[in-house]
């Protein structure tokens, strides 16, 4: 755990941490401005693979928060990098949105409809039964099973939740007895990639998020400083029940402005 004023790179979760749907939390803009004024860096690190980098840059700018390509890193982008580095020239069957399809193609990933080497699952808000049926067939034929993120649900407004990538993978696991490898949080690889890119060691990086089993776990796994905000999914009770504990707990991002 590092003193917060010594942190040089802040990795911020989005849903439940800086906003919910299209509503920016009080203090989010001031926190980002403080980071900029202090000459520190920030990246929005999201497990949500239903949208791509461009979508997020636009969305965050629309909320009046300064953001360019280097400030966004999604689990879909991490998947694109992972596939291009570890499985070049392999054929991929994707259960994902059009936006994720575009993202993966930008990393040179070869997407196919039949006989894939790998099945990749994302937060597919355009999912249909035919896609599930095909994925089951390919997994049973021995395709490698990769997924962007283990989140079971995604928060939407009015305190409601919809099934996320982890829930889609559960369906496939029950049907095929195959388990996916998840590339997004809590896998620390996304943090290692950013540490390398910005040349900032993990002990000068803080992960800020509202979910213990993804956000906080990723920071814990990377030995970065972890900050849980109670503006989203976690409550003091869920944190008490979790094996992984954040280094810091705050009601919302607003409480951090004077500490960095
Ligand atoms: Mg969140």
Can you give keywords for this protein?
260 residues; alpha/beta; Rossmann fold; six-stranded parallel beta sheet; 9 helices; 21% strand
Summarize the structure.
The chain is α/β, with parallel strands linked by helices and 260 residues long. It has helices at 28-37, 53-62, 75-86, 98-106, 129-140, 165-176, 189-198, 212-221, 236-241; strands at residues 9-12, 19-20, 23-24, 41-46, 72-74, 91-95, 110-111, 118-121, 144-147, 153-156, 160-163, 181-182, 205-209, 225-229, 248-250.
CATH fold assignment of the largest domain: Rossmann fold
**Outline type:** globular
Strand content: 15-25%
CA-CA gap between termini: 14 Å
CATH architecture descriptor text of the largest domain: 3-Layer(aba) Sandwich
Can you summarize the main beta sheet?
A: 6 strands, parallel
Which regions have little confidence, pLDDT < 50, spanning 5+ residues? none
**How would you name the CATH homologous superfamily of the largest domain?**
HAD superfamily/HAD-like
Structural class: alpha/beta
Helical stretch tally: 9
Domain module count: 2
Mean pLDDT figure: 95
From the alpha carbons, calculate the radius of gyration and give it in angstroms: 18 Å
> What would CATH call the class of the largest domain?
Alpha Beta
Helix content: 25-40%
Attached small molecules: magnesium ion
Count the beta strands: 15
- How are the strands of the biggest sheet laid out side by side? 5-4-1-13-14-15
């Amino acid at each position: 755990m590092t003193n917060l004023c010594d942190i040089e790179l802040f990795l911020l979760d989005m849903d439940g941490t800086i906003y919910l749907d299209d509503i920016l939390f009080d203090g989010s803009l001031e926190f980002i401005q403080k980071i900029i004024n202090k000459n520190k860096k920030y990246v929005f690190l999201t497990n949500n693979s239903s949208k791509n980098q461009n979508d997020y840059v636009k969305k965050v700018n629309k909320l009046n928060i300064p953001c360019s390509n280097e400030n966004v890193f999604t689990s879909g982008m991490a998947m694109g990098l992972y596939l291009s580095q570890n499985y070049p020239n392999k054929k991929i069957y994707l259960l994902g949105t059009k936006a994720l399809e575009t993202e993966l193609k930008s990393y040179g990933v070869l997407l196919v409809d039949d006989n894939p080497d790998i099945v990749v699952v994302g937060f597919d808000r355009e999912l249909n039964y035919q896609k599930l049926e095909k994925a089951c067939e390919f997994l049973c034929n021995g395709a490698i099973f990769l997924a962007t993120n283990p989140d079971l649900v995604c928060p939407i407004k009015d305190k409601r939740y919809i099934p996320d990538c982890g829930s889609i993978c559960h369906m496939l696991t029950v049907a095929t007895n195959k388990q996916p490898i998840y590339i997004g949080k809590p896998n620390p690889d996304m943090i290692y990639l950013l540490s390398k890119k910005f040349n900032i060691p993990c002990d000068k990086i803080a992960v800020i998020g509202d979910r213990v089993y993804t956000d906080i776990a990723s920071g814990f796994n990377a030995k970065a400083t972890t900050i849980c905000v109670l503006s989203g999914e976690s409550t003091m009770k869920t944190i008490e029940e979790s094996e992984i504990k954040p280094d810091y707990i705050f009601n919302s991002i607003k409480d951090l402005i004077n500490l960095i």
